[in-house]
Design a protein that fits this description.
Blueprint lengths: L1 E7 L2 E6 L6 E4 L13 E4 L11 E12 L2 H14 L5 H10 L3 E2 L1 E2 L8 E3 L6 E5 L18 E4 L2 E2 L4 E2 L3 E2 L2 E2 L32 E13 L5 E3 L3 E9 L7
Antiparallel strand pairs: 1-2, 3-4, 4-9, 5-6, 5-8, 5-15, 7-12, 9-10, 10-11, 13-14, 15-16, 15-17
Length: about 240
């Protein structure tokens, strides 16, 4: 929806409020102990009721990698306290200041993964790592990295914003020591809190946000939807 406020010499200033994603079908909590649930599953919100001069772009995902369990819990509470209808930008500004980055997909790209708006809500399922079951050394299609939209495999692999050797790194931390695209996070990485976990377990916190722009290309953002926290054990071939 939108509203207008403030009179200027050119008339009324126009402000836009975007509705954020509001439905989650699977949200792995920080305490999740079931590898089967180690994925996020949510629906976009495309019923925006915006004027024709506003371009609703779609939905993007923000993430951050943590090595310290306690820091994840503290940040989730703090972010949620800033995430309210009266000031959508506060929570987004906070996660950006804390080093959250926009999720990428595939290699050789610095562009964010965008779930493009079409006017119809979409169900989005994202799994970050190849293996999620300790007994599954030859994973089925349901257990490999994917981004599914409305049940259809997009053939895109989730990637970090961090790049090395001209490639976007993936989330298979430490699994294959010879794979240059799967290293453990390093202290200098911009998407990592810099704390190496003593048990080798990392946590990836994820949020979704809707965005769009007006005719002057000023961007507006919705409130955030907490998607969940993905657990990744770098000492296990299955990352669990």
């Amino acid at each position: 929806m939108f509203f207008t406020a403030g009179i200027t010499s050119c008339g009324l200033d126009t402000f836009y409020l975007l509705k954020g994603p509001i439905i989650f079908h699977n949200r792995p909590e920080l305490t999740n102990s079931d590898p089967v649930n180690n994925f996020v599953d949510f629906s976009t919100n495309e019923n925006q009721n915006l004027t024709s001069d506003f371009d609703f772009t779609g939905t993007i995902i923000y993430y951050k990698i943590y090595g310290k369990y306690e820091s994840v819990s503290t940040d989730i509470s703090l972010i949620e306290s800033r995430n309210n209808d009266s000031n959508y930008g506060a929570a987004l500004d906070l996660i950006k200041s804390k080093g959250y980055r926009e999720l990428r997909c595939d290699n050789n790209t610095e562009e964010s993964f965008v779930i493009n708006a079409t006017g119809v809500n979409k169900r989005v399922k994202i799994r970050l790592t190849d293996y999620n079951l300790e007994t599954d050394l030859n994973p089925s299609a349901d257990n490999v990295p994917y981004i599914y939209i409305n049940g259809v495999d997009t053939n895109k692999k989730p990637k970090r914003a961090e790049r090395k050797n001209g490639q976007n790194l993936d989330f298979n931390f430490g699994r294959n020591k010879t794979d240059l695209n799967s290293p453990k996070p390093e202290p200098q990485d911009n998407d990592f809190d810099g704390v190496e976990p003593p048990d080798g377990v990392y946590y990836v916190n994820m949020y979704a946000v809707a965005l769009g722009h007006d005719v002057t290309y000023k961007f507006y953002y919705s409130n955030l939807l907490y998607l969940g926290t993905i657990r990744i054990n770098s000492n296990s071939e299955m990352n669990w």
